Amino acid sequence: MTYIPDEDEIRERLRQIRAKRGSPERLAELEALQQEKDRAVRRKKAAASGRKSPENSSSMFGHPWPVWFQMRDTAMEVIAEATAKGDLVHYGELWDEMEHRLGTDLGDRWTQMPHLLGYVSDHFHQEIGALPTAVVVSQGTPAKPEQGFFILAVREGYLAEADGPQMGENWKGMTSRQQAFWNDQVSTVFAWAAGRVGDQSS
User: Fold this and answer.
1) pLDDT band at 4 (very low <50, low <70, confident <90, very high)
2) Of the four listed, 17, 25, 112, 122, which is most buried by Cβ atoms within 10 Å?
3) pLDDT at 41 over 90
4) What is the pTM of this model?
5) 41 or 57, higher pLDDT
6) 165 contacts 198 by C-beta, under 8 angstroms
């Protein structure tokens, strides 16, 4: 036999639902649902793209995923500390500092670094409002980002595809539009780092 609630019971249920709307508990519940939907979309994209993820592999460059994510978070700590002092970070310095903090040899940085920087930006760009890896640069005068930064910027939707490095062409360095974009990203990351220091000291 099917249970059919009476009208008073329906009205009371609706009242409870309406009362719950907008409450901190309901907002947290909605946020958790949205995060799960976002995770499902990312899993689907990762599976479709063939990109390695915890859902389709057990490790990244031989590092178990918890270690890879620890590397990602350590890289972000180094970036945050450097930018709080107004410094850019060289690729080699970043890798050496990560190895020092994690107390282990992380292997070949040349193959891993582009992927790691992608994970750093994927995870932290929304918090910062820019790609934190904008401040990671090659050693030289002037210090500048590599082509991979602009490919990442296109992938994350920060830079129009037409302004990114063109597939099949040798990258000859930053165009004027890429330079302006990079300058803006670096300024935003520095502003975020300065604000973060201010928040921690107050």
Assistant:
1) low
2) 112
3) no
4) 0.72
5) 57
6) no
Write the pLDDT tens digit of every residue in 144-165.
Answer: 999 999 999 999 899 999 999 9
Cβ of 96: how many Cβ atoms within 10 Å?
Answer: 14
Written in H, E and C, the secondary structure of the chain is CCCCCCHHHHHHHHHHHHHHCCCHHHHHHHHHHHHHHHHHHHHHHHHHHCCCCCCCCCEECCEEHHHHHHHHHHHHHHHHHHHHCCCCEEHHHHHHHHHHHHCCCCCCHHHHHHHHHHHHHHHHHHHHCCCHHHHEEECCCCCECCHHHHHHHHHCCCCCHHHCCCCCCCCCCCCHHHHHHHHHHHHHHHHHHHHHHHHHHC
Write phi, then psi, for 136 (nearest 5 degrees).
-95, 120
Give the whole-number percent of the chain exceeding pLDDT 90. Answer: 59
Q: Where are the domains of the chain?
A: 7-49, 59-201
In the block, tokens 């790691």 appear at: 116
